[in-house]
Amino acid sequence: MTTKFFTREATLHDLIALHTLNTNELGYDYPLEKAKSQLLQLLEDPRHHLMAVVEDSQHNVLGYLHAEVYQEIYADSALNILALAVSQSAQGKGVGTALIEWLEKAGARRNIYTLRLNSGANRQSAHAFYRHLGFEEIKTQKKFVRVNR
What we know:
Distance between the termini: 53 Å
Shape: globular
CATH architecture: 3-Layer(aba) Sandwich
Helix content: 25-40%
CATH topology: Aminopeptidase
CATH class: Alpha Beta
Number of domains: 1
Order of helices and strands: EHHEEEHEH
């Protein structure tokens, strides 16, 4: 039996589901109220931020994607995937693929045809998924962060 699901733009009503996916699937421990504030800002900027969810026929969110327009003076514009999370129970059922396809179509409407992402070195199953979808690993990087308070 095939599970039916639908891809749509994310809304504030998805906050709890997104927070749960971030915690359970991506390992982020971020306060819900801060996540709400961030989500409100992102949703107010659809020109630069694209967010979608996949939900089943009972409106349960199975996964989500967040991307931003990535523009530099040394390359064509791209869509930079900042988050892609699918609930453990829905993995392997086409949810992640549906999210990437949604992003490809959204990019094409903007004349952007390149998708890019960074993925933690330890996320081997995610790397296999990305390769399966045609992504190529082009370099190894280090991540540096500086917090000014």
